[in-house]
Amino acid sequence: MSDFKNEFSWSVSRDSLFKECRRKYYYNYYGSWGGWDKNHRDKTTRILYVLKNLQNRWQWKGSTVHHEIEKVLKELVSTGDLVSAEKSKSRVTELMRSDFRFSRDGLYWQKDGSLRNVTALFEHEYKTGTTDEVWKQTHDEAIKCLDSFFGSGVPEVIKKLPKEKIISIESMTASAFSFNPEKVFVKLDLAYESGDGVEIVDWKTGAGESDKLQFLVYTIFAYEELEVPLEQISLTEYNLLGDGPRAHRFSAHELNDAVEYVNESIAKMKGMLADPDENTAVMTDFPRTDNERICETCSFKKICFELD
Ligand code: SF4
After folding, report:
1. How far is the CA of 208 from the centre of ligand 1 (A)?
2. Does the beta carbon of 295 lie inside 6 Å of ligand 1?
3. Ligand 1 within 6 A of 298 CB?
4. Minimal CA–CA distance to 226: which of 180, 183, 166?
5. Which of 41, 60, 92, 152 is most buried, most CB within 10 Å of its CB?
């Protein structure tokens, strides 16, 4: 299974990790490769893989809310029925309870295969002493996010929309944009045709999370892959814990700047590889950050300084 090839691709999250700490980027995209095999012959690879899949409580809340919204919208599109907010919230409560227990008991270390859909919490792995009150708050915020989603008016819009107008519900797409031969991964929370244009919806589950680069990449995707004129692309950010929807529109100039940025970012990443064609990397070529505050919250901190 670990024989399939580690191919290079770019994404906004990859760029953000690259900027944060080069060594963290290496562990995440190269050092942990193949570690989904529980019996991997290299113990370090296995450890890096498990650590790479840790989420902190804010990320857990976000991924739980995103998965539930995805489930609600997919059920709505396939059956025409909108699940009640109460039912949705109660299944999230159940799920968070069982995910919490799984993580608290460290069962992720025993699981073979992908850990992508498994909950492994940083707070449990590093025994941060997070109080029950804080965990309760994490759950309560997830519920508040769902209340905002059900009150957003979006489910009603989707209910009225013919199925064929839905472009994406949380689907990951690898695109080769015209400006660079490398694949760029884009995951739209929700996108649908609206009149002659496209409506893109992005759910945020924490305060102050807005990421302009991410929105620009969504817009480039709609412009290039869906061939929608720029003025017909509408992007709405819903901060589900905050103060309602915010519309974003970008100019051709902003798009050009983003294209330039993505090209530069890809060139920098590939420039650090031992063999850019084979996408192979050497750990020592990726220096550690000297910002201790980044290390404090880093999933790899328990092993990082033992490695060369
Ligand atoms: S512990 Fe610090 S230096 Fe090591 S990977 Fe994490 S952020 Fe980078």
Report:
1. 24
2. yes
3. yes
4. 166
5. 60
> How close are the terminal C-alpha atoms of the chain, in Å?
27
Q: What percent of the chain has pLDDT over 70?
A: 98
Ligand 1 close to Cβ of residue 294 (< 6 A): yes
Q: Which pLDDT score is estimated for 173?
A: 86
pTM above 0.85, yes or no: yes
Spacing, Cα 296 to ligand 1 middle (Å) = 8
Q: Which atom of ligand 1 is nearest to the CA of 288?
A: 3
Dist. CA 295 → ligand 1 center (Å):
5
Segments of the chain scoring below 50 in pLDDT: 1-2
Taking CA atoms, 291 is separated from 46, 73, 208, in Å, by 26, 41, 22
Q: How far is the CA of 15 from the centre of ligand 1 (A)?
A: 16
Residues ≥6 apart with Cβ < 8 Å to 207 = 239, 241, 242
Give pLDDT, residue 6: 96
pLDDT at position 55: 97
Which atom of ligand 1 is least distant from the CA of 292? 2
What are the pLDDT digits (tens) for 240-249?
998 789 999 9
The CA distances from residue 275 to 174, 280, 285, in Å, are: 22, 5, 12
Residues 192-242 have pLDDT tens digits of 999 999 999 999 998 665 689 999 999 999 999 999 999 999 999 999 998
CA atoms within 13 A on the CB side of 179: 20
Instruction: Give residue 2's pLDDT.
Output: 47
CA of residue 21 to ligand 1 center, whole Å: 6
Nearest CA to ligand 1 atom 2: 295
Q: For 80-203, where are the alpha helices, taking DSSP H only?
A: 85-104, 122-125, 132-150, 154-160
Substitution candidate for ligand 1 out of 283, 286, 289 with most atoms within 8 A of CB = 289
